[in-house]
Amino acid sequence: MLMDFDYLVFIGRFEPFHNGHAAVARHALGRAKKLIFLVGSADTPRTIRNPWTVAERAVMIQAALGDADEGRLIIRPLRDHLYNESQWIAGVQRAVAEAIQSDHGKPEASVGLVGMDKDASSYYLKEFPQWPLVDVQHTETLSATELRRYFFEAGKIDFHGALLMLRGNVPAPVYDMLEAFRKNSPAYAQLVAEHQFIDQYKAAWKEAPYPPTFVTSDAVVVHSGHVLLVRRRAEPGKGLWALPGGFVGQGESIADACLRELREETRLKIPVPVLKGSLKSLHVFDHPERSLRGRTITHAFHFDFPAGELPDVRGGDDAEKARWVPVSEALDMGPKLFEDHLHILEFFLGRG
Length: 352
Prior knowledge:
Blueprint: E1 5-12, H1 19-29, E2 32-42, H2 54-64, E3 73-79, H3 85-102, E4 111-115, E5 133-135, H4 144-153, H5 159-167, H6 172-184, H7 186-204, E6 214-223, E7 226-232, E8 241-242, E9 245-247, H8 254-266, H9 272-277, E10 279-285, E11 296-305, E12 319-326, H10 327-330, H11 341-349
Parallel strand pairs: 1-2, 1-4, 2-3, 4-5, 6-11
Antiparallel strand pairs: 6-7, 6-9, 7-8, 7-12, 10-11
Cofactor: Mg(2+)
Protein name: Bifunctional nicotinamide-nucleotide adenylyltransferase/Nudix hydroxylase
GO molecular function: hydrolase activity; nicotinamide-nucleotide adenylyltransferase activity
């Protein structure tokens, strides 16, 4: 059969892989010899927005399209770069080139992009002019966001109704995987707890005259090749490692809030004048989806101490534990770091 492309590229998070995704993939397999899946939000912790690892999502894809596989599916992880779109675009280009190379494809292979240009979230489809776009018409199915809500509310609302909605909108092998995850994975209970916390958190602000915007402050304290991290005591992100920080009080400046939270969460004994004198830079991080709690803008302060013995620290307030982590180790802690804190570290420490 004559194909239009050697490879088509399908970019998505696939949280979970649903019938709409499957329809796009099958259309692509009718147009290309092979289909390259770039599975986004790789190297992130489990959250109610990203409940499944890349490996788990890859199994969903392979199970759902098993009859069409025959070596025609190539699945690769794709990292987020929330504050550097050029890095993300380069990551896509690099992943596609490596996928073709590992498939022993020719340098002149024809490549296209496949997807549904449905709303503003599809902007990325226009960022690769070198690849013709195969725009697949929208397939009627619930969104992944709606399906995740049913998945986490299965024990709270109409149990059978929620499962029926899931069963009707994902391929049968994916539904079986979701059921196995719900029944057998210890992660499911924590995700449900996080879902309930976020629901209650947002409900508390429901009567506000307009959607609230929260302001927080975070401290990036680097000392002798180590960065100071705390382990979160409560939801959201319970058990994840994070930068010391928190919400700005009504009667304090953002910088003062940063110093207060740093002291409360780590018991760091460095005097305030010394901390202020070690301030190297600061930056605002405001990605609209950086926090599950809602629109949250954080101001991060980078304090730098090039050398010396590491000061004693211990967890306090909202932090279960505090410790100095080698910078190289911290930059590899993506699945264990809260919200966008890996991206903040990368921004200040040079990798992002």
